[in-house]
Design the sequence.
């Protein structure tokens, strides 16, 4: 019989492409992770990974086991959820930042709600600062949003570079003062951009105030304004500009999940696990 703990470690090593990152995600030491994989290999009497100093690859038996392991772990989760579920009646209010609203995420949340006939999901889309303020006022149960250089606590889902986005069409040079496309306050991307420009002594003006990522992208595509955006949001037609154009580096955008202490903690824990699993499959 396979130990689910060992299978979970093995799958995490594969998904995270390494022992070090798997150890960080599982909050284990790297030696413990290596030990778990070694115990699996001893159980079946075959190697699961071929290792070099810099990487590892699945063997044929490793490919077979990782497929079984995912199924076993999914069944284990489903059985636990089904047998420990308690009836929930009421609203689950989720705040999502505009750059994280995706059809697949909404379908995932909708499928989750279907497990609780008495649950109604309400989603509010806004900038993270506004969503966090609403949660503190008791109007939201869960918030998912990106922040930069923040002291706010919250579960880190992933992080990626925040960059200066501009039209990919060649331009002679950036205008002075620098025209910006920004979200309104309190937006972490806005604050990071204005702070770094001020520190670098670069004059700027707000050329376009946007309420959506689509607006930021349109301004940058047209060459109308430079927009601070997460790298994954750029898309076709946009390019990253920076030091070559005299612009300062921006801090990373950190996507975090926040929960209200006043919400139903069992439901919040289930939603948190759901979002974490969703994000583990979402590659920036």
Sequence:
């Amino acid at each position: 019989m396979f130990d689910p703990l060992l299978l979970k470690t093995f799958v995490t090593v594969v998904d995270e492409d390494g022992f070090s990152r798997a150890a960080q995600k599982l909050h284990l030491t790297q030696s413990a992770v290596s030990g778990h994989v070694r115990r699996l290999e001893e159980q079946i009497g075959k190697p699961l990974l071929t290792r070099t100093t810099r990487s590892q690859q699945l063997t044929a038996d490793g490919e077979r086991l990782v497929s079984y392991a995912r199924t076993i772990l999914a069944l284990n989760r489903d059985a636990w959820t089904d047998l420990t579920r308690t009836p929930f009646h009421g609203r689950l209010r989720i705040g999502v930042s505009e750059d994280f609203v995706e059809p697949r995420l909404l379908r995932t949340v909708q499928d989750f709600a279907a497990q609780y006939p008495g649950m109604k999901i309400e989603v509010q889309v806004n900038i993270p600062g506004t969503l966090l303020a609403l949660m503190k006022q008791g109007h939201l149960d869960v918030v998912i949003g990106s922040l930069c250089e923040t002291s706010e606590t919250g579960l880190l889902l992933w992080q990626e570079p925040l960059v200066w986005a501009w039209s990919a069409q060649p331009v002679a040079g950036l205008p002075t003062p620098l025209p910006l496309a920004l979200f309104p306050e309190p937006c972490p991307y806005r604050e990071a951009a204005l702070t770094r420009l001020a520190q670098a002594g670069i004059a700027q003006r707000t050329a376009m105030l946007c309420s959506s990522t689509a607006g930021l992208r349109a301004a940058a595509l047209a060459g109308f304004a430079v927009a601070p955006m997460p790298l994954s949001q750029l898309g076709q037609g946009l390019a990253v500009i920076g030091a070559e154009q005299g612009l300062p580096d921006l801090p990373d955008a950190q996507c975090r999940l926040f929960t209200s202490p006043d919400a139903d903690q069992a439901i919040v824990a289930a939603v948190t696990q759901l979002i974490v699993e969703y994000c583990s499959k979402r590659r920036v």
Q: What stands out?
A: The domain at 159-252 is CATH 3.40.190.10 (D-Maltodextrin-Binding Protein; domain 2). The chain is about 40% helix and 25% strand.
